[in-house]
Amino acid sequence: MMDTYIREFPKQLLRSIEIGEQAKLNKHNQPIQNILVIGMGGSGIGANFAAEFTKEECSVPFLTCKGYSLPAFVGPNTLVICSSFSGNTEETLIGYAKAKAKGAKIVCITSGGKLLDIAKEEGLDYIQIPNDGQPPRACLGYSLIQQLFILKFFGFADAKRIEEAKKSIVLLQEMQESIHAQAVRIARFMDKKFPVVYTTERMEAVAVRFRQQLNENSKILCCHHVIPEMNHNELVGWREQTGDFAVLIFRSKDDHPRNQVRIKINKEIIGNYTDTVIEVFCKGDSLIEQAMYGVHLGDWVSWELSQNRNIDAVEVKVIDFLKSQLAAADIGL
């Protein structure tokens, strides 16, 4: 089933754009001075991408909230986007209530649940996304694209970002089979090894997404870091061959020239401690195209690893257990 969700990712992006183009939003009665996206897991990762995609044009601070506490700056001049696929995410609902109490402009992205009920009852702006039974991590396209449309509406994202998203659909459709074949090869190299994922700071969201997909789909641990920051700390950790590591580096032709040099040097150093260093050059003419290429490839790798391990990629029983225990320990938040 997860392989079907992955294969249909380009279709999801297309459907997401159609939804975004029909969305009805209202301007805020005060100037927006900062932006906060509240969202967890598969519902929250879209904000990481949106922040990276609009970094060079968004004229106000853009932060993400992945917990219970909101930054002190949240107030009447804040645009708060509450993203919850189910509409019942505990942290997001608590964050919403706090944002409302502070008078923020709130826009909700959800398929239903309590968040949709609240949005309707209180007259909030909201964009309803489809729920066809897939897990939130299989719905990245819905949350990400709607955030781009919201940012565009409020003047914090250029219209060309939507056009770049459309081009990414064509890219993924044309390269679907070759991406999958590449994922099979990468999974073969990574099987039974501890994955370490690197990229440059412009595409950290791709690395985060891949780590999360390895966690949930492949049921394995993983770590990630970004260049150049890791050159000031983690690189020193490559000192002894204490484990069987598989290093995957997401790259792009548009990476900063100094980072290109750094990657070359890093490979030489890391190569002394592992025989498995894999480079992926994400294809596309824009950051959005390259990021969606990396996402799609990473999703396929996580699926292939789950098959190699004879694991059900959809099952997340431990998260279900956690939620049941939290419900039993309800303290009236």
Description of the structure:
The radius of gyration is 20 Å and the shape is globular. The two termini are 35 Å apart. Helix 2 (9-22) runs parallel beside helix 6 (140-153) and helix 3 (41-53) runs antiparallel to helix 8. The strands form two sheets. Strands 2-1-3-4-5 form a five-stranded parallel β-sheet, with helices on both faces. A four-stranded parallel β-sheet has the order 7-6-8-9. It has two domains: 2-158, Glucose-6-phosphate isomerase like protein, domain 1 (Rossmann fold, 3-Layer(aba) Sandwich); 163-308, Rossmann fold. The protein has eleven helices and nine strands. It has helices spanning 2-7, 9-22, 41-53, 90-101, 113-121, 140-153, 160-190, 204-216, 257-270, 287-308, 317-328, and strands spanning 34-39, 62-65, 78-84, 105-110, 125-128, 194-200, 223-227, 245-251, 276-281. The model has no long low-confidence stretch (mean pLDDT 96). The longest helix has 31 residues, at 160-190. Strand 6 (194-200), helix 8 and strand 7 (223-227) form a beta-alpha-beta unit. Helices cover 48% and strands 16% of the residues. The chain is an alpha/beta fold and 333 residues long.
